[in-house]
User: Fold this.
Amino acid sequence: MTTPASIPIAFASLAALSCLAGWTARSPAAHAADASDKAAFVPPPESAIPQGKFGDEVRLGEKIFREPGTHASAYVGNDLRCSNCHLDAGRLAGSAPMWGAYVTYPAYQAKNGHVNSFEERLQGCFRYSMNGKVPPLGDPVLVALESYSFFLAKGLPTDEAPPGRGFPALPKPDTKPDYDRGAQVYADHCAACHGGDGLGQSADGKVVFPPLWGPRSYNWGAGMGSIKNAAEFIHANMPLGMGGSLTPQQAWDVATYVDSQVRPQDPRFTGSVAETRAKFHDNANSMYGQTVNGAVLGDPASTPPAGTVPAAAEQGK
Ligand code: HEC
Ligand code: HEC
Assistant:
């Protein structure tokens, strides 16, 4: 892997080393963001995980969260890790932390039109973000992830979204988000790590910088496929270690660029791109079904397949 020239050398090597080691280090910028958000909850340290059967589940859950391709491989259909999007292994405020999520379920989800248990919400990220198969309810993988999230949320009240849940809101862009401006932001601030082709970078067979698009990234149904979600995540957390350094306009532009690329099919695909857009993507935050660079996004001829979903898990979705 070449050292990206556009980021400080010290940080470049820190990022590379830490990623290879599973990314446990925190960047100075991430600390600064935490300090300004005084109300953000601090989850218990790893050293507080108890001994015994329950602690074993928590430890397994953390392993799955960091390396789902190794510890939950049957359900993973791409090269991503939960911790690629939920930074610091689901601990970081403003990066959809697991403690913030755990205490806000069961909750109604418009995406599938009913009240979802926490386990069902976990299934959603396997189906879409991981482009994988859905672990059945009660599966050891879901029990371990739930145990880990429960542990991280120790002491938080339930049914109240704690500060730091989800991604920080981002002001609407001054001008309509633009693909070409986004391409420039991408080249200047992202390509060094994620690659000019967006496919990420690996070293010694391990993904060091995750793919943002292409067949090994999240599929069209994923939360990150919404330009709004991506803009919020990117503004708060990217470039890695320099969260908050892009203007909101730059974040909207680059999110538009990233979410206008080829990625795996939406597993809810009905057989028609127009119909799938009308049913699931009929809003300004989704580029699915739109024509970009002369091609229709989601067109089966040029779209990698969705992960396969067991029939039982389809029910009610
Ligand atoms: C490509 C990025 C990405 C990956 C990989 C990913 N997620 Fe997510 N996840 C998101 C986004 C974006 C949201 C918020 C979606 C929304 O609000 O619609 C989210 C939301 C969640 C939530 C609900 C958060 C809340 O506050 O309600 C949980 C729980 C969750 N993810 C768990 C996981 C687990 C477990 C994995 C790994 C199996 C995973 N995610 C992998 C992007 C990702
Ligand atoms: C210094 C290297 C670096 C730079 C520069 C960088 N990223 Fe990242 N990015 C990462 C790493 C590493 C992760 C995974 C973090 C982890 O696992 O802890 C990541 C994760 C992501 C994710 C979620 C995972 C995925 O594959 O979808 C998105 C989206 C993302 N970056 C977008 C961007 C955008 C857009 C830019 C430019 C504004 C950018 N990044 C700049 C290193 C970088």
